[in-house]
Amino acid sequence: MNHVSRITYHTSLFLFLFAIYLLTYTPRINSSDGLAMFSTAESLVRRGALDIEQIRWMDLQQGTFGLDGLLYSRKGIGVPVGLLPLTWLGLVVPWWGTVSASLLFNTIVTALTAVILSIYLQQLGFSPHTGLIVALTFGLSTLAWPYAKSLFSDPFSGLLLLAAASALLKYSRGAEGQRGRGETNRSPAPPLPRTPALLFYPSSPVSFS
């Protein structure tokens, strides 16, 4: 498979899953976690601030009061930062809305995760056909699909972890190739698992997002 074919293949996989997820898309935030992270993103876009005063009525459920008396989210900053482009688009496109636009975030993230999963499997030596089957199984037959409708941080954490694994695998093989040519004496990188952990979608991974 040449470079152009790979781009077409991965783009088609992404667009297919994205279109499927849109069939079950709902423009409602269905969790207090998601509401807190969205509120942080909205405050950043509207005012350049980090408080979540718009959900002050929730009190300490998702936030902590700062020394200035304002309410701040206890959630990580990764998802709110990732939400910024979509939240901004929702603000500048009058008929769209910040909530409706932001809720596309995990739809995009989950479809992209399936693409990276396919790439990772091919890096491990599996055929593109196998990569496609596993990616579709992940995207359509696991908790990835329900999570794509939410604003939980789990899909974003999974995407970043899988992208890191793919990058480390590529780096380790590049280092091995250099050692084979006698160009470096670096120690080999530890082996990576051949079974992607994303097949077993975590219910509560370590959250850095």
Protein model, in words:
This protein has 209 residues and is mostly helical. The protein has 2 domains: 3-25 and 106-199, no CATH class; 32-102, no CATH class. It contains 8 helices and 2 strands, in the order ααββαααααα. The protein has a two-stranded antiparallel ribbon. A hairpin with a 5-residue loop joins β1 (63-65) and β2.
Brief account:
This protein is mainly alpha-helical and 209 residues long. It has helices at residues 3-22, 32-47, 78-92, 98-102, 105-123, 128-141, 144-148, 154-180, and strands spanning 63-65, 71-73.
Fold topology:
Blueprint: H1 3-22, H2 32-47, E1 63-65, E2 71-73, H3 78-92, H4 98-102, H5 105-123, H6 128-141, H7 144-148, H8 154-180
Antiparallel strand pairs: 1-2
Helix pairs in contact: 1-5, 2-3, 5-6, 5-8
